[in-house]
Structures are given as structure tokens and as C-alpha cells.
Amino acid sequence: MHTFMKDISDETGNKSMKELGFEQPKWMEQEVCLYTVDSIRHSGCSSGSYMPAVTYVDATRLMYAYGDDIINFLDQHSDYCSGEFDLDPEKHSYGGWCCRVVSAAVECWAHSIPEDHDFEGRAE
Fold it and tell me: pLDDT digit string (tens) for 94-124?
């Protein structure tokens, strides 16, 4: 499995992205660590890596509170993610659609973290 965390210590892997100097979108209310970002990048939210994105009640609440911000994020970061996010009641329930959109945004954000970042501060 390819990982951008190849030589990362447990101390660094367990640090929150905020501690590592990365801004986490306000709609990602649950703070994540570097290990979680790696898991999201490899397995997606549906693997359980970020449960608020795949739990209907949480994803629906997030879309209610931050829906415009989430959709705008997806639009602005289309180089990291793709997909059709139109609500089609014949294909998805509203809760299922919310999970799909929030998951895509979280996965898109995780993939926007640069692979070549010096997380350990080893650069001289």
C-alpha cells in the first residue's frame, strides 16, 4: 500500500492536523490526526475512517449547517475530487445523498494535504 506517511513517527502521526499547521474546514467538526488523514486517503470515509461523513444523521446535520460551504469546497477543489452531486430522489435518499457529498468533501480535503510535506520537520 502506498502511503505518504512512510517514515512518520507515532508521535507525529497522532498529532492533530491543526497541531501540524493545517487548517481543517469548519464543517469537519471532528478533529482528525495525521493517521486519520492517511486512512481516509487510502480507504475513504466509508471504511469508518471519518464516521460523521457516513452516518446519515451526522451527514444530514452537517449539510444543514454547512451545505453551501461543503458544495463550494467541492467546486473549488475539483482537481482533488470528482463526481456528480445532484440530488436524484430516484437514486438516493436525502440522507444517503448527504453522506455521499460530505464523504466526497472530506476525502477531497484529505487528498489536498501535500504528500511531500515535511511532517517531522526534518528539512534543513
Answer: 999 999 999 999 999 998 888 766 666 654 4
Phi, then psi, of 112 in degrees rounded to 5? -80, -10
Closest by alpha carbon to 48, among 103, 10, 95? 103
88 dihedral zone (left: phi>0; alpha: psi -120 to 50; beta):
beta
pLDDT tens for 67-90 read 999 999 998 887 656 666 777 778
- Per DSSP (E only), the strands in 1-46 are none
Which amino acid type is present at position 79?
D
Confirm if 45 and 28 have CB atoms less than 8 A apart.
no
Cα–Cα distances in angstroms (integers) from residue 105 to residues 46, 67, 73, in the given order:
13, 11, 7
